[in-house]
Structure formats: C-alpha cells, structure tokens
Amino acid sequence: MDTPVVAEGLEKRYGETVALSGVTLSVERGEVFALIGPNGAGKTTLVRALTGTTEPDAGTARVLEAEPTAVDRDRLGVLPQAFSPPGRLTARELLAYYAGLYAEHRDPEDVLADVGLADAGETWYEDLSGGQQRRVCVGTTLVNDPGVLFLDEPTTGIDPAGRRTVWRLIEALAEAGTTVFLTTHDMAEAERLADRVGLLAGGDLVARGTPEDLVAEHAGSSRLEIETTAEPSAFEDLAFPVAARGEEVIVRGVSPADIGAVVDYLDARDLEYSGLSWSEPDLEDVYLALADETELERTNRTDRTGETLAHTGETA
Ligand SMILES: Nc1ncnc2c1ncn2[C@@H]1O[C@H](COP(=O)(O)OP(=O)(O)OP(=O)(O)O)[C@@H](O)[C@H]1O
C-alpha cells in the first residue's frame, strides 16, 4: 500500500510572511507523526495544506493517494485547531449528527465512551467544560473510523486524566492501522505518542526522527537543577558544566551517582539551596535547543535566554 501522507516541497506565503518554505515529509500507515514547533512556525498551515483547506503556492501533497481536495472524506478525519460545533446540541446529538454524515459510521455511543464522555452525553456542548468540549471534537473525527487522522492540537485544554484517555485512544487507533498526523505543543504528548517527530521552525522542518534519536542527537546531557540564590561563580570549582537561570543553577552531565558529590560540594561551601531535581534529557530539551538555534539564526541575536553562563560555553 502507498504511503498515506506525502508532502513534497510545500510552500505557502501570506504576504511577506513565509508560513511554509518547502516542506517535504511522508507518514506511513499506522504511524503517528507529531509536528512540533513554536507559535507561528507553520504547523496549522501545513495541516491545512495537507487537508485541502489552503492551497500551497508551490509543491504537492497527496493523502490516501489523492490530491488533498479530492480525498475520499469517508476515510479521513480532521480536527482543526479551532472547531466550534453548535452549542445547543448535546454531546450525544453532536456525535450522532457527525456520524449521520457518513453512509457507514461507528455507533456514536461507542465514540462517546472512547473519548471518556459516556456520562456527559446529555449535556449541551456549550455547557461542557473546555476540555470536555475538546474531547467531543476529537470524537467527531472518529465517527467514520478514518484511515488517516489529522489532529491539530487535540489535547489543548484537556486535564491530565482526559489527556491520557485521548492518548490511549490514539495509541489504539495507530495499533489498528490508522495513520495519525498530530500537531502539539505538549512535548510529553509527542514523546509518548509519536513514532516520529518533526520540528517545524520558520516554515522549515529543521529536524525529524524518532523521539529517542532526536533526544540522543540534540538534547544534551542530564540536568540537575538546584534552586539557590547563590552566585554562579560559587560553582566554579564543580567538576561539571554549570549555567544559571534566575534562581536556579543547572548542572549538566550529572549521573544519579554523582548527585551526592554535588550535595557535598554545596554543603562544604555553605551554599544554601531549597530544592534539587534531576532529569534525563527529553524532547523538551530538543525543542528548546533547536527552536532557540533556529530563532538565533533567524534573528542573529546573541542574548535570548537571559541565562548567565558560569564557566562553560553551554546554555542551560
Ligand atoms: N490566513 C492567514 N492569513 C495571514 N497570515 C497567516 C494566515 N494563516 C497563517 N498565517 C501566518 O503564517 C504563519 C504560520 O501560521 P500557523 O498558524 O501555520 O502557525 P502554527 O505553527 O500553527 O502556530 P501556533 O502554534 O500558534 O498554532 C504565522 O506567521 C501566521 O501569522
């Protein structure tokens, strides 16, 4: 079977603004592809170009082997970033309404349960909480059991438990062969769900790969965050790279076994601290490193983070 989502050299401008500057990508069947990137990076524009709601200035897109405007809608699910169904329909009525648009559709009751709203079926959409509304919106994209699903920030505004419900749902869909193209600002979401992640910045896909590969390549080393008002210079003799950020000192490359030595260092110098937290590098570090780098290249600025470096050339 052919690759369900393919973009080649997609370009889109709005006046002087370059929203997409030649994006090429493909997403395989059953794959979850997460598109991340700063506000205004072009994510929604890319989703719109792939789903036929905006026409690119150059390049081509194919979804389910068709032009985006000619895709068999029975096989496609699209959740736009801004989606406001009628407020005076209940969650159940809304899903039944959207299901009725398709000759073959799932039982709306099952979809309601899938998005964790079995108990809220009789509530008007306008009376649901923001997170419940978003879950109904996700549900509307599932009624036709789509083969390809575009979800533009599906979990924005959803509480942690509801988010996990949606995550499990997406995982189950992908396992059953649904191709999922997702945009998100939630790095935990991208890391958990995505087989591959693409980082869009300034209309360009500046990095792509599995979350693991991106972390290994771009995220740097582990970080120990020390909440302290001590001056960065007080850490000069520590055997690890250190950077300061506000009332935090960030020590890089510390393994869990090294934490004791850092604590000894603090105690020996009477450096007061109110908290220590250690973390493995993750996708958020990748995002910060690459988004900053791209922003730097774009603006040619040299001082963007407000971080003061102690005795290394690193940023935190
Ligand atoms: N219809 C439009 N008219 C004019 N400019 C637009 C239009 N749509 C998008 N843009 C511009 O194109 C750029 C990319 O916007 P886009 O919405 O694709 O970004 P995004 O990555 O989805 O952002 P966010 O994370 O904030 O949702 C922005 O500078 C935006 O202002």
TrEMBL record:
<dbReference type="InterPro" id="IPR027417">
    <property type="entry name" value="P-loop_NTPase"/>
</dbReference>
<comment type="similarity">
    <text>Belongs to the ABC transporter superfamily.</text>
</comment>
<protein>
    <submittedName>
        <fullName>ABC transporter ATP-binding protein</fullName>
    </submittedName>
</protein>
<dbReference type="Pfam" id="PF00005">
    <property type="entry name" value="ABC_tran"/>
</dbReference>
<dbReference type="InterPro" id="IPR003593">
    <property type="entry name" value="AAA+_ATPase"/>
</dbReference>
<dbReference type="GO" id="GO:0016887">
    <property type="term" value="F:ATP hydrolysis activity"/>
</dbReference>
<dbReference type="GO" id="GO:0005524">
    <property type="term" value="F:ATP binding"/>
</dbReference>
<dbReference type="InterPro" id="IPR003439">
    <property type="entry name" value="ABC_transporter-like_ATP-bd"/>
</dbReference>
<feature type="domain" description="ABC transporter">
    <location>
        <begin position="5"/>
        <end position="227"/>
    </location>
</feature>
<dbReference type="InterPro" id="IPR017871">
    <property type="entry name" value="ABC_transporter-like_CS"/>
</dbReference>
<dbReference type="InterPro" id="IPR050763">
    <property type="entry name" value="ABC_transporter_ATP-binding"/>
</dbReference>
<keyword id="KW-0813">Transport</keyword>
<keyword id="KW-0067">ATP-binding</keyword>
<keyword id="KW-0547">Nucleotide-binding</keyword>
